[in-house]
Design goal:
The chain is built from eleven helices and no strands. With 227 residues, the chain is mainly alpha-helical. The longest helix has 21 residues. The radius of gyration is 18 Å and the shape is globular.
Length: 227
């Protein structure tokens, strides 16, 4: 997807939508690379995303989608810098992301996608504070994330919201409160290296959902649907 989008941007450099696609796919690739331990490759992919979206946002300051995509990429940039132990850079990216997200949310306070991203930004800032051995700030940031996510979890069944809420509770040491969420996520087949590592570090089992894995394998073996 990244390669295809990059070719399209070369064909028409003025097409903002294709540039946005290229940036988003690069950001998503960066997430996968980081969680697979390929930090140098992740840095290249995510820097492409941040650079493109910074330019798009500057040229189109009224476009909320570009700004939200930039905030998402800045947040992933912060996670990557945190993985590399670069706490100052991680703090700067997380702060930039949260500032932008809060401005967007002021205009549409009920936007669930923005609420989730704001909560995730608080979660990352909590991780940074914990790395700096500032436990009180870390706890406050994780409580901010938990409180923002609580209404989303009560109102729906979105896996990212459930995972972010469970993550906040685990980081706060609320194993009892997190356990039902983790059971739900396992039944839904949710699995990322970040989440599995956190659950395992909390001394909780998170086995692979074999039924879900079999369903995915079955779908992948089916012939493509003609369009």
């Amino acid at each position: 997807a990244v390669d295809s989008a990059k070719k399209l941007t070369a064909l028409d450099p003025a097409n903002s939508d294709w540039q946005d696609d290229f940036a988003l796919y690069s950001q998503q690739l960066g997430v996968l690379l980081r969680q697979s331990g390929h930090l140098d490759a992740a840095a290249i992919a995510n820097q492409d995303a941040v650079s493109i979206l910074t330019k798009l946002s500057a040229r189109n300051p009224a476009n909320a989608n570009f700004q939200q995509d930039l905030a998402l990429s800045e947040l992933e940039q912060s996670r990557l810098q945190l993985s590399r132990g670069k706490l100052d850079a991680a703090t700067e990216s997380a702060t930039d992301s949260l500032t932008l997200l809060q401005k967007l949310r002021a205009k549409t306070p009920g936007d669930q996608g923005l609420i989730l991203l704001v909560a995730e930004a608080h979660g990352v800032k909590g991780q940074i504070a914990a790395q700096r051995h500032n436990s009180s700030m870390a706890q406050q940031e994780w409580m901010n994330a938990r409180d923002l996510l609580a209404p989303l979890v009560q109102a729906g069944n979105d896996t990212r919201s459930l995972a972010a809420y469970a993550t906040a509770m685990l980081r706060l040491g609320d194993i009892h409160g997190a356990r039902p969420l983790i059971t739900r996520l396992s039944a839904m087949g949710y699995r990322t290296p970040d989440f599995v590592a956190l659950v395992t570090a909390s001394n909780m089992a998170y086995p692979i959902n074999s039924a879900f894995t079999e369903r995915i394998a079955d779908i992948m073996q089916r012939p493509p649907v003609a369009r």
